[in-house]
Amino acid sequence: MLESGGGEALKDGLLEKRGDGLLQRWKKKRCVLTEEGPPGDTGRIKQLHFANIRTVDCVERKGKYVYFTVVTTEGREVDFRSPQEAGWSAEITLQMVQYKNRQAVLAVRSTRQKQQLLAGPGVGHPLPPPSPHGDTPTDIRPGPDVTDGSSPPPYL
Questions:
Q1: Which of 5, 70, 73, 115 is most buried, by the most CB atoms less than 10 A from its CB?
Q2: 144 found inside a domain
Q3: Beta-carbon neighbour count of residue 94 at 10 Å?
């Protein structure tokens, strides 16, 4: 999360943000890069959550600055610049990738849990070994209440 203060800081310092106005002046902003954001009331703090960031684009080095653009999920572009040695664009990109990876892992876990709940008990357990008498689980047929009587019951 890119914000203007608070939380456990992964990176803290000055960034310059290009204004949206007609003159598009660069304004210095104190920024703090955190994983979770500030604790408590944010008040006047502006936040840009990783969940709302699509990419970090257009990384260019010109003179003493590195210019980069943060593209939001709504398509809004926010231009920043920082001194070359600061490494803001790289740190934001790294933290964003780690955030997206954590979200993907959580999504997979959630999907697996839903599938297990829908499948019912016993799913995910191996089949018992075949009986020496030849009756395997595939020999089981559904009872008469499963068919309509017009055809023999199917094998499972």
A1: 70
A2: no
A3: 15
Predicted confidence (pLDDT) per residue in 12-37, tens digit: 888 999 988 888 899 999 888 887 77
pLDDT reported for residue 48: 84
**Structural domains of the chain, count:** 1
Give the residue numbers spanning the domain of 53. 2-99
Share of the chain above pLDDT 70, in %: 68
Is 156 part of any domain? no
Contacts of 35 (CB under 8 A, 6+ apart): 1, 7, 8, 10, 95, 99
DSSP assignment of the chain: -EESS-SS-SEEEEEEEE-SSSS--EEEEEEEE-SS--SS--TT--EE-GGGEEEEEEEEEETTEEEEEEEETTS-EEEEEEEGGG-HHHHHHHHHHHHHHHHHHHHHHHHHHHHHHHH-TTTTSPPPPPPTTS--GGG----TTTS-SSSPPPP-
Report the predicted TM-score, pTM, of the whole model to 2 decimal places: 0.62
What is the CATH classification number for the domain harbouring 43? 2.30.29.30
